[in-house]
Amino acid sequence: MKPLVLNTLLALLALALFLASLGVGPAELGLSESLAGLFAGGSEAAEIIMREIRLPRALLGLAIGFTLGISGAVLQGFLRNPLAEPGIVGVSAMAAFCAVAVFYSGLAGSSLYALPAGALVGALAAVLILMALAARSGSTLTLILAGVALSSLSGALTSLVLNLSPNPFASYEIIFWLLGSLKDRSMEHVVLALPLMAAGWLLIALSGRAIDALSLGEEAAQSLGIHMARTRLLIIAGVALCVGAATAVAGTIGFVGLVVPHLIRPLTNRMPSVLLLPAGLGGAGLLLAADIAARLVLPAGELNVGVLTALIGAPFFLWLVVRSRREAF
Amino acid sequence: MRLDVQDLRVSLSGRPILHGISLALNPGEVVGLLGPNGAGKSTLMRALAGQVAATGTMRLDDTDIAALSPAARARLIAYLPQTRIIGWRLSVRDLVGLGRLPWRGYGLRPSAEDEEIIASALALMDVAYLADRPATELSGGEQARVLAARAVAQATPLLLADEPASGLDPAHQIMMMRALRRLAAEGRSVLVSLHDLTLAARWCDRVVMLKQGLLAAEGLPEAVMTPQRLAEVYGITAHFTRDEGGLILAPTGLTDGEAGS
C-alpha cells in the first residue's frame, strides 16, 4: 500500500476510535449531550465528564498508543530484531518502580504531580545509565543487555515493595503501575506528558535514515554515512522521553509496541523509516480500542488496559508467528 | 581520485593488526588484496572505510580521509562488508536504493537520477530481473550480487569490496570481476580482497599481498604470484599455467613445515 494511503486510513481509524472513546463511560450521555459538554458547555455534569474525565483519557490513549507503536518500530529497526519493544530498554520498568517507590514512601500524598514526577525521574535515571553505557562501549548489544538488566532489577525492586506494602490498597496502587491503565487521568497528566512525548517522537523521526541504513548491518550503515554513536543517543533519548512520559502517567502497557509494527509492516515496503508513522498511528488505534474494550467488558470493575493488550496481544502474536513459518519480517 | 596510504597502523583491543602498510590506487585501477585468513585484509578495508581507528596517512587526492565526516566520506568511499546482512524483507530495488542515502535529503523520495543509477547498478550486477523480489528470499549468490549493487549505487570514486566473489558460482564470480572492471573503466578505483588466486591474477591490474599485517609484495599479478611467495605467504604449492587471458593457478598442496600447522 502507498504510505500516503496507509497513513490516511490509519489516521482515520485512530480518529474514529478517539471519538468512540469519548462516547464510552459509566455515565449515560447521548451524542449531542457529549458534544455539547465538550465544546459548548451543556449541562454542568456533562461538561465535567467530557472535559475532565473522558477527554484526557482519550487524548492519553491516542498519545501513549502512538508512543508505543513508534517506539516499537524504531527499536525493531535499530536492533534489526523483530522482538524488540519499548520495554526492552528498561525505561518503563524503572519509571514504574520509581512511581511505586514514591507511593510506598508516602510522598504521593503531597501533590498530584508526585507520582508522575517520580516515574519521570526513574525514566531519566534509566536513560542516563543507558547513555553512559552507549557512550562508553559503542556496542548495540551491550546497550540491550544493560536494558534487560535494568528491567529485571526494577522488576525485582517493584516486587520487593509489593511484598513489603502495608495494606491491600497500596498493593492495588502498585498493580496499577505494573499493569497500566488510563483510568482517572486528568488534563494535568496530559499537559505533563504530551510535550515530553512529542519531543521523543521528534528525536525518533530524526533517526529514520539511520534505521534504514541499519537494515544492512552496522558496518554497511557506517559506510553509508551513518554516525552510529549519534544514532544510538538519538534513539535511546527519543524512546526514553516518550516511553518514560507515557509510563509516568499510565503505568507500563505491554505488547502494543511489540505487536503493532508486525501488524503494519506487511502493509508497507518494510523500509524501517516508512514504518514509523503508520506504526504510531496503528498503536494509537489499538490502545484506544483496547481502552474502550476495557471499559465495556467489565463496566463495574473495569479491566486494566495493560491486561487487555497482553490478553489479546500475546495469542495474536503467537498466531502471527505460527502462520508465517517463513520469515515474516 | 588517487588513493594514497602511508604507514597505516591499526591495533584492535591493544593487539597490533596492521604494522605500517603503504599502498596507492590510481583512478581506473582494480587492485586485488591478497593474503591468508587473518593477514589483515578486512582490517585494512575497515580502516580505509573509517570504521576502526588507525594511524598513518590516508588521502584521496588532497583530502585527508581520517578528517572527513561520515556523511562526506560516504560520498567518496563505498565499502562492501564481507558479512552479508539483510535485515528485513526489502525488495531488491529498495535495498539497492539504500546506496543513494548519502546523496539524498532525509525523507525525500529517490530522484529520477537516483532511479537511473539504481537501475544501472542492478544491471551491472546482473540482478535487474530480481528487482521486485524480496531480497531475503534469494539464493546466497544472488544476495551477494544485490549487496554489491548497493555499494555500486553509492557512486563513489573509491569502492572497497571485501570478498565480493566468495560464495558465488564460477560464472557469477567472473561476472562480479567483470563488473568491477567496468566500474574501473568509468574512472573509479576498486580495491577488492580475494581468496581465489586465479581470479586475482586474471582480473586485477595489480595485486597487494599481505602477511601477518605486513606488506609481503605488491605489483603486477605475475610478478607477485610466484611459487616462492605462495609458499612463503600461504604455505602452499601450486600448479602454474597460462593462456592468453593470463595466469592460471591451482593450489596443489601444502608446503612442509609451517603450513597447515
TrEMBL record, chain A:
One of its GO terms (molecular function) is transmembrane transporter activity. It is a multi-pass membrane protein. The chain crosses the membrane at residues 55-75, 87-107, 113-134, 141-162, 190-212, 233-264, 276-298, 305-322. GO terms for cellular component: plasma membrane. Pfam families: FecCD. Keywords: Cell membrane, Membrane, Transmembrane, Transmembrane helix, Transport. InterPro entries: ABC_BtuC-like, ABC_transptr_permease_BtuC. The keyword Transmembrane applies. It is found in: Cell membrane. Gene3D superfamilies: ABC transporter involved in vitamin B12 uptake, BtuC. Belongs to the binding-protein-dependent transport system permease family. FecCD subfamily. This is Iron ABC transporter permease.
